[in-house]
Amino acid sequence: MKQRVITGLLAGVLYLALLWIGSFPFAFLAAAIAVISYIELAVMNKMSATSPEVLLGAVAVLFIVCSALFSPSVLGPVWPRLVTLLALLLVLFNVMTKNRFSFAHSAYLFLSVFYIGIPFHLLVRVRMESLALILFIQILIWTTDSGAYFIGRRLGRHKLAPYISPNKTQEGSAGAVIAALAAAFVFQWIIGQPLFDSWMQLLGAALLISIFGQVGDLVESAIKRFYGVKDSGKILPGHGGLLDRFDSLIFVLPLLYVLGFIA
User: Fold this and answer.
1) Enzyme class, one word (predicted)?
2) Is the pLDDT of residue 250 over 70?
3) Which residues contact 2 (CB under 8 A, 6 or more apart)?
4) 246: nearest Cα among 107, 74, 83, 122
5) Is the overall model pTM greater than 0.90, yes or no?
6) What mean pLDDT, rounded, does the chain reach?
7) Per-residue pLDDT averaged across 28-56, rounded?
8) How large is the average pLDDT for residues 198-226?
9) Where are the alpha helices (DSSP H) in 52-168?
């Protein structure tokens, strides 16, 4: 527990410090987290982190995240070509490796590139537009995690998804949503300036972040259970991998984008 607390504090301070600074320092941190998370996904599927096909995907993730630093008009026209090129190169490895690297592996890495790259692209882009908004999202995710853990330990009786994540409870999940809603209203009261056009939008955003943050956690748990691993990695002593720490954010940011809460 001591190691877990120390690791969490040090990593949290570094993350929040660079989040506050924003710009290139935070973009580079987000890109590093994204690349490591992508590699963790690849390694889960028994792929070598240093294989050419995995490294190709890592370069693609790095590009997707760092492209948030530029205007969409600069890179917009080339995106379809780059996506097509990535797909062709990944399936080309099927031939080059005599099917040691199969079409299923190609599809896995192709999806992993965008499953990881898009959320961290959005993370950098939202930070560039509004520090308050990205803090709101991040704090609600952390509040949801803490609420689910502490309320679940104290009041949890009914399992939420026993075949995927046996420790999660329905009571913890409900308590996490209530905690996140309270945090949303407190955060809005503290900053004063409205984050959304109405209180109803604020409530809707908070509900989405808390509920689907938990869904993102379950999605990663399902992936780990399928591949028979406890943690996505070992980079954070006492916490596991970076994918374990950012699974909720990975799911929430694209959903907020699709529904128009972030641009």
Assistant:
1) transferase
2) yes
3) none
4) 122
5) yes
6) 91
7) 96
8) 93
9) 52-66, 72-75, 79-96, 103-129, 131-155
Contacts of 99 (CB under 8 A, 6+ apart): none
How far is the C-alpha of 255 from the C-alpha of 189, rounded, in Å? 25
Instruction: Show the tokens assigned to 29.
Output: 């941190």
Phi and psi torsions of 235, nearest 5°: -70, -25
Distance CA(227)–CA(256), nearest Å, equals 29
Alpha-carbon distance values, 73 to 45, 65, 68, 69, 158 (Å): 36, 16, 11, 12, 50
What b/e sequence results for 161-198 when a residue is b if at least 16 CB atoms lie within 10 Å of its CB, and e otherwise?
Answer: beebbeebbebbbbbbbebbbebbeebbeeeeeebbee
**Tokens 């917009």 label which residue?**
76
Cα 102 from Cα 56, distance rounded (Å) = 15
- Reported as a single tens digit per residue, the pLDDT across 98-137 is 889 999 999 999 999 999 999 999 999 999 999 999 999 9
- Letter for the amino acid at 208? L
Instruction: Measure the CA–CA gap between 174 and 179, rounded to whole angstroms.
Output: 9
Q: Residue 33: is its pLDDT beyond 90?
A: yes
